[in-house]
């Protein structure tokens, strides 16, 4: 019998979350008497751990997909996706352009070497690009001073038949916090406002809280790039995903594989981090950090056993963790355990208890955990 741990990915939840974001954007655009933006559903990092093929199915109504990895882009095409695919970090070597060309991929261009590679490439078709501006995050992108010349060169490559559309993009550093987007947006607008082409500036947080800046017009197309919210987790520390009508798309489940009775003063797990103040009944769960559960989750992290909410006790081991069965006296070996997801705590709750974010937990699901697809 296989070890009793598994993850379930709900394609219907993925589709629901995309529709929820779509509805929010449509309502914002209608209120502003403008056109709603198109959506690039971001499916980088194996669709945030949910699986490329599941994401292609769940996001079938998106206008485009966005990711980093060329291999994952090819998988999208092989799974039947015929729409635009944007490489968020672009290409890295001249040979990558063979794949970009063969599979009709669009690319972010964020430094001069990429323009050089495009100028030298022998392509069978034009490549659509988004020219990235570093508006203040200081990761990728041309500086405000260098951007006009980069755009001019891209426009020349467009005239020469190498490039198709040339759009403009940036990435916000603080869309999820009180600082907001105004400072970076001001830089972006001041540099790009006279340059033609589609615009893409909104990630999950900006799409949910600042959707008005992505409202398009007859002369200006906007694309948003939602990621984590499409998987039913929140980009915000002060608002949970359910408050936006989003559903968890991944559920991590296991079972109780042993029960221990301890007395007052007994400790639990490595480092004896938890010591009982009274007699307790403990459940040992087949899940640990080698499965992707966070090792630094602390005592008190929520866990649901047999439909009842309880808590983690002590340190998470490689293959096991311990839960308090006090609230669940009927639980025993074989009782179901929900670590996060539809029938348990949200992945954001678990992440918060571990001092991290839900993105990391979803992306860190280990290959040894079997994943099933739930339509």
UniProtKB/TrEMBL annotation:
Gene Ontology MF annotations: alanine racemase activity; pyridoxal phosphate binding
A Gene Ontology term for the protein's cellular component: cytosol
GO biological process: D-alanine biosynthetic process
Homology family: Belongs to the alanine racemase family.
Record pathway: Amino-acid biosynthesis; D-alanine biosynthesis; D-alanine from L-alanine: step 1/1
Keyword Isomerase in record: yes
Cofactor(s) the record lists: pyridoxal 5'-phosphate
Record's protein name: Alanine racemase
Keywords attached to this entry: Isomerase, Pyridoxal phosphate
Gene designation per UniProt: alr
UniProt modified residues of type N6-(pyridoxal phosphate)lysine: 44
